[in-house]
Here is the input.
Amino acid sequence: MPRFFASKKPAQRILPQHIGIIMDGNGRWAKKRGLPRKAGHSKGAETFRTITQYCQDIGIKYLTVYAFSTENWKRPQDEVNAIMDLLRDYLHNAFSHKDDNIRSIFIGDRQPLDEDIRDLMAQAEEGSRDATGLTVNVALNYGGRQEIVQAAQKLARQVKEGNISPEDIDEERFASALYTAGQPDPDLIIRPSGEYRISNFLLWQCAYAEFVIMDTLWPDFTSKHLDEAIEIYNGRNRRFGGI
Ligand code: FPP
Here is the structure.
């Protein structure tokens, strides 16, 4: 069911249940200031924390952020290291999320990540398992195609083991083999920094999402921009293939 803004927001606005954000523009933000790219990622990580808290405050149930794609390994090693270090910081602080009632989930292929990061991810997930507020999916070494392929492999193994037949595979079962199993699809996907691309983000789940592209670079993104995106979302006429 749609949710409504609390008292300080204009009445009657429908809150998306699940928001996806492609956190783009960190590099350009740094370049504009003559700073190294990692300074942009650092400011982007701050923005991520602010927006997560804001989503929790206004009652969003799911937020998925694209932090590192399967293609981002192609970047210079020191930039990759800087992003991984920011992630370590986030993971160390994620424990305090227990008090915030925020659940952390990591989506993507963990295998190539450093062992200390994988351990911290598991601890953050375990420690926030019972949170009932916002669920934050951090997409890390994530690619939509890779997610679909691993789901197909998982289901193929179940068929091979004789647990299901090929005919048992319908959309619902397929969705339950994705990293986002059990979660509603995103209603709204926001891409700051003005690019009109999906970049391999939530390919299955975005089937009926509303896209909002904003010119602001991610490090400059504020709760006001999120409100604006929600307002644009409210102006859309969602028909899900109907009339
Ligand atoms: C895209 O901007 C951004 C990334 C590839 C990294 C995003 C990472 C963070 C915001 C920080 C770490 C995250 C967490 C969860 C702590 P870009 O570098 O492609 O920007 P550009 O297009 O301007 O070059």
